Structures are given as structure tokens and as C-alpha cells.
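Supplementary Methods S3. Input chains for the assembly prediction are listed below.
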Amino acid sequence: MDPTGSKLLVTAGEIVVEIMATQIGQTFLEPGPLVGPFPSGAPAIFIDQAARLGQACGMIAAVGDDDFGTLNVERLEASGVDVSAVARLPGVPTGTAFVRYAADGSRAFVFNIPLSASGHIATTPEATALLGRADHVHVMGSSLFSPAVIAVVEDAVRTVKARGGTVSFDPNIRREMLDSPGMREALSSVLASCDLFLPSGSELFLFTRAQDEEGAVAELLQRGVSTVVLKKGAEGAVHYDRAGRTAMPAFAVEEIDPTGAGDCFGAGFVSAWLRGAPPAECLQIANACGALAVGAKGPMAGTGTLAEVQAMIASAGGTGA
Amino acid sequence: MDPTGSKLLVTAGEIVVEIMATQIGQTFLEPGPLVGPFPSGAPAIFIDQAARLGQACGMIAAVGDDDFGTLNVERLEASGVDVSAVARLPGVPTGTAFVRYAADGSRAFVFNIPLSASGHIATTPEATALLGRADHVHVMGSSLFSPAVIAVVEDAVRTVKARGGTVSFDPNIRREMLDSPGMREALSSVLASCDLFLPSGSELFLFTRAQDEEGAVAELLQRGVSTVVLKKGAEGAVHYDRAGRTAMPAFAVEEIDPTGAGDCFGAGFVSAWLRGAPPAECLQIANACGALAVGAKGPMAGTGTLAEVQAMIASAGGTGA
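Predicted C-alpha cells for the full assembly:
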């Protein structure tokens, strides 16, 4: 348990630097203007956001012994994340993600993740020590890209559940990732262990027979998930549990860069949920985190502090509308 | 043998994209302006330059099945390089090199090469076919970074030497690379097989007891190297063989970007040497290639065509001075 008495939140998964093309429609087939390296990786963005809200938290991950690893570790540490279980691996590069934007707002990537340090994470003695203090594990589906990483994540889930802790799960996947070896099975396995499920849009239906919202949610609650939070981007979010349904509109903000918004939303929700806040308050904080994230360029540029989140909620009249 | 009757030049080694920081003194510890991806990799720059001079040539290499691989293969193909032995490896990233520049002109890098596609090159059936037609192999010391790659290079050298072909060798290493497993031995082995040795500055002394220029050259010629070409950057180059010494001053040009200049110099020299040009002409072409390379931003941006090289030589009065 965390000495302050608050719960300790842990995540495990990929850390990367992100390099962004600066012009809409730019390709990676010829040189052009880029900006970076930005600290990134879905679980890293999540845990950075949680830390900046004051949540006690740590991360199990690996980076290379290079500037890109230093950049990420320094960022997480500055935000207040326990980085004792972030390994630095000599001779292995820190993961990279190059992203470019099409005129329709869609993104395309060139990744180096499975063969980067992120593909070599392990349940090290430091990770075991962190998990020994953890109350909650958050899993990003994007992290389940290789058998080695799946093993670390499943081990973390098992350890924390065995001690009476809780698990949240954000599928956070692209359709083409479902074909990675073992990924579909790993997603099912994590879903079966999770208390709090945070799908975006059609991810709700990834593992349900029902293909309508109410039906899919009923099926998930039946299977033991206690809470489903459906992320709908600019249309807000909906909370479901056995007590009922709570919908919350999104804050009206200009979208500068969507990268990381879902991760920040999740961190806001999980942090509030862990201290027992009611659904409407959890959703409001989560929506504010998502809104701050889309309003800033760079994956972690928009992770807001508690004061920034509270200011956004107050400026919108406290309703999130 | 090449159907045109000219000799076929082959190299083997790393292909990468290069991402450049645009501001002097920029670090990779925070986001900043970058430009890229540029096609790069020392042997790739070398072979691109050779092709643009009209030399029949091909490369044994590997890239990922990603935009960065496409970028490189398209570039080499457009320049006239035989890319039949450049493998595209699914699930493995194309190599990357991030470079930044200090105020004193020195460079610092973040590499992903040994664990990229470049670390997975192999003597494929396509490589064997290419080597079956090759008259000359050029080796970059920078390519000897792993046992797998060393095996491919040594195999190429052996195959071509066994058929009466020739070998050129540019050490092209940074001191810290000498500690890679097997690299020092591989450099010695290639040196023992090479006809044409192209060291830069103090690389001349890497494998000699003598630590003065004349003594080191004598030692190398004694050991079976037929020609030594010492690259001295802005001070030009010196050619040594059993017949004597030929020095050639560099062309006076403003240095925009030194990356690739030594590789282009080598390609100019080797191409001229393969068609039996006399030392002074080989040096002049090599110097012109080097000068064009330092005058352009981007590793392959300055690989000149035969017409551009001839124009530079003509504009300097044909003396290279």
C-alpha cells in the first residue's frame, strides 16, 4: 500500500518516442519537416496523466540506453511516476513511432516497437517489488503485441487480483493488430479479469455476441465486469454498472491533436474511480483530461494537472457540458 | 560479367533512414524541429554515388516492409542500382539514424541498426546471383557490426576473390565501434583480402605498427594491399601504390553537411579505378564527388551525376585545385 494511504496504480507496456510530420498530407516517402522526439506510448501517456492528477502510480517498462530512453524516463519521473521498474537496456533501441496526418484527419504510422526495448520488458525484481505494493493494474490492449509482453501483463494482473486488487482495461487497438500472435486470446483473458472496461466506439463489440450498445453492456456486466465506460470522443462518454447508466457530454474544444486523448481520459477516470468518486464525477474528470489532451500538440503535451482539470470543469459550469 | 562489358561493383551492408535535427546545438532530450526521412547508410550512399556515375552496381541489404524501406529502395533503383538483392523483411523495421550537430561541427547519433532489418541481411539466392556476376566488392567497416553481417560480407569477399575479382575497403568506423563483438577481427580479415584500401585520417594506422604515413603505407603495400588512398577531407587525398605517390588537393567548397562525403569520395575513386583510370584522374573524380556531397544537406542529396562531376572538375580548371 502507498504510504499516503491512497491506492497505488500500476501499468505495464510500451514506451516510445513519437516523431510527427508537421504538414497535413505529408508522406514518409521523401524528406519533409518533422518535430520530435516526444515522450509517448499509450500506457506511458496514461500513467503520466494519472501522476499529474496526484495519483500514486508506477510503470513496468523498458527503454534503451539512449537519449530517447532518457527523455521518457525524465518526463515520467518529473510527473511523479514511480520509474523504479522502467529498465534501461543497453544495445537495444528505445521504441519509435513516426506519425503523419492525412487531410481527413486520419493518421498513419511507421513503428519500431516489438523489436525495441519495449519488446523486452520483463517481470524484473523491481517490477515484482512495484507489483507487491500495487492496488490496481491498468492494461492497454496496444501493449499485448508479443508473447513476452503478454506474459508480463498477465503476471501483473494475476498478482494484483490475487491480493484483492482491481484491474482496468482499455482495448486501445487497431483492427490489424488483432492478428498479432496471441493477441486476441490475451485481450479475452484480460477482459475476463477486469473490473473496469474502457472501450472506444466499436471496441465495445470486440468480444460480445450482441452488436448493440445496451445488449453488449449487459453481456459484459453478466460476465463479471463491474463497470463499463464507453468512450465516444467528441460525443462524450457513458458509464454503465449494475446500478444504471450515466451519460456525460464532452467539453467543447478545438481538436489540435487527438493522440493520447483516450489514454488521458482513461487515467482521469481510473484515478477518480480508485478513490471512490461517483460515476458523474469520474466521467467529468475523464472528459476534462481528454479535452485538455486534444487541445495540445504532442502525445503528453496535454496531460493536465489536477488544477488544470478542475479549472476546465469550473469554466464549463461544473457540468462538463 | 556485366553485359555492357563494364565491371560490376557490389557492396553489402546497412540501409537506414536518417532524421536530422535542424538547429545547431539541438538535443534529443526534448522535442525540436527535425527533417527527414532521408535515404542513408554508408554503403547505400556509396553505391548510389557509383550508380549515378554510370557504374554498373548492386547492393546486398535488407529493409523493413515499411515506408522507410520503400523510400530507400526507390531511391537506389532510380539512381540505377541493382536492388534485386535488397530484401524486404516483414515485421522488422528499416534501420534509423537520428543525427544532431554541435556548435563545433561534431555530430551525435541515436541509432537503430543491429536490431533493424540491416542486422538481418543474409546471402539470399538473390545475393548469390548478384555475386555470381560481380567483379568487385566494396566493404564499409561500419557494416561489420554483427556476426551475421560479417558473415555476409566475408562470404561476398571470398566469392568474388575466388573468381579473380577485386576488393576495396573503407574502414569508415568510429573508435567506439571497435568493441563490437568480432569487429576488429573482421576488419583485419577484410584488410588482408583487399586490393584497394581507403582510410580517412588516422584510420590509416588502425592496423599498422608504424604510426607515420609513409611507414604505415609501406607496411600495407608489403602486406598485399596494391593501392592505398588516404582521405584527408578538406586537405584532399593521397594515392599510394608500388609505383609511387600522387597527391591531389580538395576542391574548395563550403561545407553544408559532411555526412556521406567520404562514401561518395570512395564511390568516385572505385568507379574510376575499375575502368583503369590513372591515379590522378581517379583522385580528381573522387574529390569532385566528395565536394559535391559536402555541399548538399542530406546524406544522398549530394551524390553527383557524371555530368555534375565533370562540370566541377572543368570549373576548377581540371586540376582539382
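The mean pLDDT of chain B is 93. The two ends of chain B are 36 Å apart (CA to CA).
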